[in-house]
Amino acid sequence: MNIFEQVESEVRSYCRSFPVVFNRAQGAELITEDGRTYIDFLAGAGTLNYGHNHPELKEALIEYISSEGITHGLDMHSSAKAHFLETFHEKVLKPRGMENFRVMFTGPTGTNAVEAAMKLARKVKGRSTIVAFTNGFHGCSGGALAATGNEHHRGAMGTSLNDVFRIPFDGYLGEGVDTTEYLEKLLNDPSSGLDHPAAVIVETVQGEGGLNAADAQWLRNLEAVCRRNDMLLIVDDIQAGCGRTGSFFSFEEAGIKPDMVTLSKSLSGYGLPFAVVTYRDELDIWEPGEHNGTFRGNNLAFVTAAKALELFWSDDSFVDEIKQKATHLRNGLERLVRRYGPESLKVNGRGLMSGIECPDGEMAGEVIRDAFKNGLVIETSGAHDQVVKCLVPLTITMAQIDFGLDVLDKAFAKAAAKRERKVS
Amino acid sequence: MNIFEQVESEVRSYCRSFPVVFNRAQGAELITEDGRTYIDFLAGAGTLNYGHNHPELKEALIEYISSEGITHGLDMHSSAKAHFLETFHEKVLKPRGMENFRVMFTGPTGTNAVEAAMKLARKVKGRSTIVAFTNGFHGCSGGALAATGNEHHRGAMGTSLNDVFRIPFDGYLGEGVDTTEYLEKLLNDPSSGLDHPAAVIVETVQGEGGLNAADAQWLRNLEAVCRRNDMLLIVDDIQAGCGRTGSFFSFEEAGIKPDMVTLSKSLSGYGLPFAVVTYRDELDIWEPGEHNGTFRGNNLAFVTAAKALELFWSDDSFVDEIKQKATHLRNGLERLVRRYGPESLKVNGRGLMSGIECPDGEMAGEVIRDAFKNGLVIETSGAHDQVVKCLVPLTITMAQIDFGLDVLDKAFAKAAAKRERKVS
Amino acid sequence: MNIFEQVESEVRSYCRSFPVVFNRAQGAELITEDGRTYIDFLAGAGTLNYGHNHPELKEALIEYISSEGITHGLDMHSSAKAHFLETFHEKVLKPRGMENFRVMFTGPTGTNAVEAAMKLARKVKGRSTIVAFTNGFHGCSGGALAATGNEHHRGAMGTSLNDVFRIPFDGYLGEGVDTTEYLEKLLNDPSSGLDHPAAVIVETVQGEGGLNAADAQWLRNLEAVCRRNDMLLIVDDIQAGCGRTGSFFSFEEAGIKPDMVTLSKSLSGYGLPFAVVTYRDELDIWEPGEHNGTFRGNNLAFVTAAKALELFWSDDSFVDEIKQKATHLRNGLERLVRRYGPESLKVNGRGLMSGIECPDGEMAGEVIRDAFKNGLVIETSGAHDQVVKCLVPLTITMAQIDFGLDVLDKAFAKAAAKRERKVS
Amino acid sequence: MNIFEQVESEVRSYCRSFPVVFNRAQGAELITEDGRTYIDFLAGAGTLNYGHNHPELKEALIEYISSEGITHGLDMHSSAKAHFLETFHEKVLKPRGMENFRVMFTGPTGTNAVEAAMKLARKVKGRSTIVAFTNGFHGCSGGALAATGNEHHRGAMGTSLNDVFRIPFDGYLGEGVDTTEYLEKLLNDPSSGLDHPAAVIVETVQGEGGLNAADAQWLRNLEAVCRRNDMLLIVDDIQAGCGRTGSFFSFEEAGIKPDMVTLSKSLSGYGLPFAVVTYRDELDIWEPGEHNGTFRGNNLAFVTAAKALELFWSDDSFVDEIKQKATHLRNGLERLVRRYGPESLKVNGRGLMSGIECPDGEMAGEVIRDAFKNGLVIETSGAHDQVVKCLVPLTITMAQIDFGLDVLDKAFAKAAAKRERKVS
């Protein structure tokens, strides 16, 4: 029995899919203790958009640590924080017409950013209900968990999860049904059971929910419903943000203007714990320390995050690069679908947040297990774990994408054959 | 207007007490951008027990980063995690008769560890109520916040906080009243309104609550009430643990055996976001991934945490060192009390988690503002911010303690004189 | 200022629509202190299915009171209770294949019966979620209110309303959308956000919600979804039961077999406070007194209720009578629709639970105010008070129906004309 | 198997203590179907303060029914309601300096009155927390149940019970501890965990809780704490009101002025379902119909209630009568205590809400079972059912009291002997 089985909690999960011990990593490569190399199509569930241990970020980080820069300072002012704020303001907010957005450093986890956003929305509007969507995932701490759809997580709470109203996500009621119309009908109906919400929280592409990409028009309709009904629009961009879908924020393509945005995962650029909520300054009615936490404002993350913004978001070249890779990856996935199940398989998602939906979790599970045997770290998502999810580093090389596609090709070939045998 | 006022959220708080920009730090010293040095009696609110940027931890960290060790790997196995688990098992759990304890990596924040502990306790017992104490602080995310006493934080939630029953902490009902007897009376009374709890969550010394130190006998009584009434005992050792009160766990002195312990803050040893819950293996009924989060298992923190355990907890020398410093500090604080208010001031706390309780928050506020002007970073705590809280690095030098005591001497002299003028 | 304005709470409501003082009543007639007679198309919001002060019930009641029969006996056995139970068993349960149903006497209000049903369902299934529908009304006490849709009532609670999941009622998503399919999709989707419910609570015709009559097939589909997903089906028959829609239970037409049924309003037959839940005996896992209340089991109501069951439900003649009157009334309503707004008006409901839906609450309000001036007591319902609701006593005469229809004819004529002027 | 066992729910409870079928009743006498007479020391758990079927109330009731007075009229104005309001205003409110109190007709159950009071308090203050006490009983519907202490009832809810903070009742922490000081300490402590409450709800004598009578000074202290801390004081006088303790309201002796009072049980005077909340007019900020219910305003109860007020509360003679009977009863109970257990037994309660506390529920259970065999209907109360509770009709004769005391004497003799045998 190894040390993990002996001492680590049964709650551990990813390690069960990948029963090796990783030691080093670089870019899209993960290397085990015994020297085997895997290509990473998981990327820390979207945390490693710039790959593992990006050399320039690593250099900045080591330099900062070596110079005895502040590592932990609660939310005291630090040079590193100032530099991050300036960079985020200049490279992210300003060019996107969000120069009036404030940045709140929450506890350095996505769920904590969601908690903060939900609290602030309720405080601003003086109402308790938040609208969330089927298959949404927003974290596992008590406040955020109410908005998360997954019963596996919800069931672990052990108390009532309050004041979230669930609306079907785009497409949930079938093609041609605009579920924002259902939302608005409820809002206009004083006995619908939906109390006037403070806000709507939405992912533009539902990562954990199965790479369900909301249509741009649906997002615009949702924004309009929020405006007409005095509700805040919160985009939870923790997984889909930081370039994953092709632009810094995932909602840029739709042209909407959320009131609040949560960011975490790839924000530090280096896989360091970090999270923020950014929102229009009129909403900034927090009293000092009202929402707090020891690790809000992670100085090491300030350093790598600022560096990552400078490196990748100073001009449009990275956006172009993502687009090319996304096209390449999605073409590859479409090819697999055509080859192994034009009726039963389907490409889901948007940009480099794409994958293949299988008829069930069993098939998807076989694919990823087989892929792992052939050197690819990749996971499933979706309500039934039925989606093979390609969450590659955005800095991955074309060759690495091709390697992954080849591995997947073989895995799908096998799984499809097995499935056919079973069906017939 | 500086960048912080322009862009950072109004929720920022510590920076308001210390309106400078810190740049570097070493041990108990904080250095500003313009070169001024402060002695740190705050230590990241208990996060920097081994001081800022401890040289050997720094070295280990840089070495790990340089070698491209895994930085982020979700909860996949890594060499760094294995090494941390082995070290924690050997240096912490085993010598304390806790070799059967499991370690759960939660999101890397204290509040997330508390959420996990509360969930697991409810799941194990199949009951929803948790007992928490007056002036308790356990974090600000929805689940943990229900257990936190502070109305400032509670009021920000905007929804009902469920299923926590509040009991007066040791001493709350005056000397000579054992509040565990009240708890047991409620438990034995089927119409008390206290539904059979799953667990009790307690801090042995309430950090945010004003350095209220529970008596060892009271803790033993509390443990006995838990045993007699089939409730789990959770010690939230996030602030008081990792040596702060003189032993690794704060409850060792009382000789109790909690069922679960939460740790965070100083666990990484370097101020890195990190948190665990450790609990008896029989309680480990989690299903894989039931409570999760992107940053659970921070590899950089594994490295520094393991190193810190090796450095400081391989023998008893650190315990002795803390004891000497605590005696020195507390003697100094007692001297201040005798000098400036034997009737009105009072030394609170235990070990290096000690401070001076003032008659009100106004006086305590004057003391820390004056101290800051003279080069000391120090904060207040308590329901009315009335306690001047000395949370020095455990690695501080005697000379630095003396410097701090001198600064506090002058600050108390001034504040006491002012108070006297006001009263007369 | 009269005594009502001086002393009665501002919460009073129906009296504002009918600013007279009623003194006596008989059948479908209400007589004021100053001798004016009104025809009653409100019938105590469905409480007076057998009319006011039915002579034979009155006689039985007076006889019982005169003989000093037990009036109040908590839930002790009484002859009156035995007689009611026997009669209910013989006349109601047995003929409908429900001989294995138990009868629980809750507090004598509809909301209390709903509370009891929801509690028992949760206890039986060991789960907390209950599914309720848009525009549902189930009462105003804390437990039941969570299932009620009306924001006017919900907003008065002042705390979180827990563990009810709202599903669109039949027709809510437009013609051709079977909302039970949406419910089942949520149930089969482990990240839908709908935790496995203990039960579904439904009105077959939503009285307060605007006389929305569920299609019989939809009800059968709902029952099937409950069966396939191990959920209890609770029919809240408080307003639609006791003959209102043409059969004793409103769900008989659809041929479904609910697990639990709540009854109140017309159950006593005489307007006396009374309520029961009846459910399959396997579900009867209550411990003695677990849900209680001082007035559960109202002996005067036992007497009139048993008498009413004997009088009206011993054979099918009353069912036939209701059917004829319903046809007559609905024909009359259809005529009004054709005459005053074939495009804008619409007949809603089922059986003698029918009315006319107006384009808005303003028009419906004008109709009922005008009707009252001409001797008709009638109210609106619906989310926007847009439905003119004809809740006549089932014992009303054809002549009285005609009187009412005449009054409504004039009122609609006026309101329609006014509306036309406004539009043009 | 009789009809009750066959058809009535397992939730039935009192009938299990008294396994006979009652048929008629008069004053303090209950007569079974087979002609046996019992003396009633239970009085409908305080619902029959004027005895069963009081002749003058009966006469008024029959007259009203015979004249076809309105039986059910929702909350429309009726002559009977006007008369009740005038009488209540003149006989109850005005003489007690409460002429500015409004009367709200809630659903006709105590729990519904409590729900209404809690809602209104929360609405008035814009806060959600309500303070309730250990051993308090306020009803079993979801909102009120949160304030009820009994785990038997609470456990049946199946969802979180929100926003009630429990404080030890007078005497709970032992003699000499004023628990209102604990309450005030919590209120003045911003990290106590007690969020600023909207109101305190209290019974002056806890009926279900074991006849715990609050000291008059404690009640005055509680009122003062409410005033100093801007909280409403709600006296739940459902069981202790209507003369039970010697004055119309139970709090008159203490000289306090609650902001709201709930009344039910004996308010109708005849055992009819009826309940009100009465409160200072400034608090009357309800919107029409915001809290509603079909049976609010029970006209038959208006008739008997007004008559009862006229008969019993027009002068002080009834107060004197209660006082004499209470003295007589309590002397008798004291005698029993001296005789059968001066160390182990104890007289509890106040006025005609008195009883004997036994060392355990077993002994009390034996007493009442034996008493029933000898012709006395009497029940226990208290957390462990350890109090033999004498809730006689206030109109009982001295001879009937003596009969009951004799029966109790023999029952205690037997139970005490048995207990002694067991102990030795």
TrEMBL record, chains A, B, C, D:
<dbReference type="GO" id="GO:0019491">
    <property type="term" value="P:ectoine biosynthetic process"/>
</dbReference>
<dbReference type="InterPro" id="IPR015421">
    <property type="entry name" value="PyrdxlP-dep_Trfase_major"/>
</dbReference>
<dbReference type="InterPro" id="IPR049704">
    <property type="entry name" value="Aminotrans_3_PPA_site"/>
</dbReference>
<dbReference type="InterPro" id="IPR012773">
    <property type="entry name" value="Ectoine_EctB"/>
</dbReference>
<dbReference type="GO" id="GO:0047307">
    <property type="term" value="F:diaminobutyrate-pyruvate transaminase activity"/>
</dbReference>
<keyword id="KW-0808">Transferase</keyword>
<dbReference type="InterPro" id="IPR005814">
    <property type="entry name" value="Aminotrans_3"/>
</dbReference>
<keyword id="KW-0670">Pyruvate</keyword>
<dbReference type="Pfam" id="PF00202">
    <property type="entry name" value="Aminotran_3"/>
</dbReference>
<dbReference type="GO" id="GO:0045303">
    <property type="term" value="F:diaminobutyrate-2-oxoglutarate transaminase activity"/>
</dbReference>
<dbReference type="InterPro" id="IPR004637">
    <property type="entry name" value="Dat"/>
</dbReference>
<dbReference type="InterPro" id="IPR015422">
    <property type="entry name" value="PyrdxlP-dep_Trfase_small"/>
</dbReference>
<keyword id="KW-0032">Aminotransferase</keyword>
<comment type="pathway">
    <text>Amine and polyamine biosynthesis; ectoine biosynthesis; L-ectoine from L-aspartate 4-semialdehyde: step 1/3.</text>
</comment>
<dbReference type="InterPro" id="IPR015424">
    <property type="entry name" value="PyrdxlP-dep_Trfase"/>
</dbReference>
<protein>
    <recommendedName>
        <fullName>Diaminobutyrate--2-oxoglutarate transaminase</fullName>
        <ecNumber>2.6.1.76</ecNumber>
    </recommendedName>
</protein>
<keyword id="KW-0663">Pyridoxal phosphate</keyword>
<comment type="similarity">
    <text>Belongs to the class-III pyridoxal-phosphate-dependent aminotransferase family.</text>
</comment>
<dbReference type="GO" id="GO:0030170">
    <property type="term" value="F:pyridoxal phosphate binding"/>
</dbReference>
